[in-house]
Amino acid sequence: MHKSGTKNSKEGYENWFEENKPNSKNILSFLKKDTEKVKNYEFLVGNFHQRGYGVRKNDTKYFKWMEKGTHKDDILAYFELSKCYFTGRGVEKDNEKAYESLRRSIRMY
Predict the structure, then answer these.
(1) Quick one: which of 103, 50, 73, 85 has its CA closest to 2?
(2) All domains of the chain, ordered by start, with CATH?
(3) What is the greatest pairwise CA distance in the chain?
(4) Long-range contacts from 101-105, C-beta under 8 angstroms, 24+ separation
(5) Can you tell me the distance from the alpha carbon of 90 to that of 72, in angstroms, rounded to the nearest whole number?
(6) What is the C-alpha separation between 7 and 36, in angstroms, rounded?
(7) 20 class by beta-carbon count within 10 Å (0-12 exposed, 13-18 middle, 19+ buried)
(8) How many angstroms separate the CA atoms of 50 and 33, rounded?
(9) To bridge 86 with a disulfide, which of 5, 46, 49, 98 should be the other Cys (CB 3.0-4.6 Å)?
């Protein structure tokens, strides 16, 4: 799941979340056991918060998890963070920060 940006990558992770919705709590428990070994950990946990799967839906936590993911140079987290800034989801709208996050994700791709 490192390189996103193609339609298939986006559809892939969207489908994965939908297919695994019934197992969300178990998946979150599993992910928490060894966070350093799980690639895109922050991105995954943030998406559970954004969707309300296994946890209460919380856009602020979604934003914070994406922000944490950017500290690990997660391309998916940078892309999602840009969407947060563009839309104001979990954070105050800020087009400048949105563009910077988007630029970083594009450079990483």
Answers:
(1) 73
(2) 40-109 (1.25.40.10)
(3) 38
(4) 101/70, 102/78, 104/70, 104/78, 105/4, 105/5, 105/75, 105/76, 105/78, 105/79
(5) 20
(6) 28
(7) middle
(8) 21
(9) 98
For 58, the token pair is: 């919380």
The reply to whether the predicted model has a pTM over 0.90 is no
- The tokens describing 36, both together, are 């350093």
- Per-residue pLDDT tens listing for the chain (109 residues): 444 444 456 677 788 889 999 999 999 999 888 888 888 999 999 999 999 999 999 999 999 999 999 999 999 999 999 999 999 999 999 999 999 999 999 999 8
